Amino acid sequence: MLNDTKVKKFVALFDIHFGFEKKYDVRSGRFKEKPTHDLRFLQQIMHFVSDFRPDTVILGGDQFNFDTLRSNRRGEKEAITRDIGDIKRAYLIAKDNLFNPLNHYPWMKKVVIRGNHDQRLERYLRNNPEWAGLIEPQDNLNLTTSDWEWLNYGDVYRMGKLNFIHGETLRCKAADSAKLAAARYLKNIRFGHFHTFAAATLYSAIDEDIKTAISVPCCCTRDMEWMGKSPNTWIQGFLYGYVWPSGNFADYVVIRGNKGAFVAEGKEYK
Questions:
Q1: For residue 246, is it within any domain?
Q2: Fewer CB within 10 A of the end CB, N or C, for the chain?
Q3: Which domain holds residue 257?
Q4: R_g (Cα) of the chain, nearest Å
Q5: How many domains does the chain have?
Q6: How far apart, in whole angstroms, are the C-alpha atoms of residue 178 and residue 55?
Q7: CB 164 within 8 A of CB 190
Q8: At a CB cut-off of 8 Å and minimum separation 6, what does 100 contact?
Q9: Alpha-carbon dihedral 24, 226, 86, 110, rounded to 10 degrees
């Protein structure tokens, strides 16, 4: 029964990408700025979190975009100095719209999985240790309390028979991601990174065991600057569900429609 207090509820959010993209405009001679996060969608999700009251919230990687620290700018020492204000601003927006609201639920466990964009910061700090203690998210977001669990890059978070990863190690086309994840992990696996929905199932005819893999849609914007105006398969959404003491689970992918609404637990969020 879903009203059993031993049944644990969860919400999993992937690819929020707090931050900004900047593109130099030749005509104006200025940089044009565009946010990579979608605050309106995030506010809808937080409304659902308030209603659903999960026991665990999982942030499944790429919480921050860190455009300044992308690999082709690693050698530019001035880049971080020039754009550190953007990183700090992204932290402030994330703090006000995600981390502080989640801290209002003291019973809730919060799990942070690091993704490839989050790894940009760790890589930069290894090469530039003078910035240590100044631009890490834990320090800027005041997330030092025991109810925040930070996983190392590449780690798996397990909840019952469900396994959560970011998904960047799959290295394939989005359409093939779920099939590859099912075959590689041979577990019930949930992941992001591909910013779209895909699902696959493995079935054993010997012991009738079933394993599922799901690519969960993203929480960021769907039209980032680097993509130009080309069409893409990105979809906005998230995952929520229930885990029983036996490890069995029921989880649901929520997809945000074209008009910005989604339905979860029988309620429409506009």
A1: yes
A2: N
A3: 8-269
A4: 19
A5: 1
A6: 27
A7: yes
A8: none
A9: 180
In a domain, residue 3? The reply is no
> What pLDDT does residue 135 have?
76
Cα–Cα nearest to 167, from 129, 109, 116, 203: 116
What pLDDT does residue 1 have?
Answer: 46
Mean pLDDT value across residues 105-112? 93
Contact 254, 261 (CB under 8 A): no
Higher pLDDT, 124 or 246: 246
> How many whole angstroms separate alpha carbon 163 and alpha carbon 125?
29
The CATH number given to whatever domain includes residue 38 is 3.60.21.10
Length, in residues, of the chain: 270
Q: Indicate if the pLDDT at residue 25 is higher than 80.
A: no
Residue with tokens 């696959």: 200
Please state, in angstroms and as integers, the Cα–Cα distance from residue 206 to each residue in 70, 209, 210, 213, 237, following that order. Answer: 47, 8, 11, 20, 35
Alpha carbon 76 to chain centroid distance?
A: 27
Distance in angstroms (rounded) separating the CA atoms of residues 251 and 108: 18
Ramachandran angles phi, psi of 54, nearest 5°: -70, 155
Pair 41, 235: CB distance under 8 Å:
no
Is 51 inside a domain boundary? yes
For range 206-235, the mean pLDDT:
82
pLDDT in tens, 177-205: 888 888 888 899 999 999 999 999 988 77
- Report residue 228 as tokens: 């130009």
Residue 2 is assigned to a structural domain of this protein = no
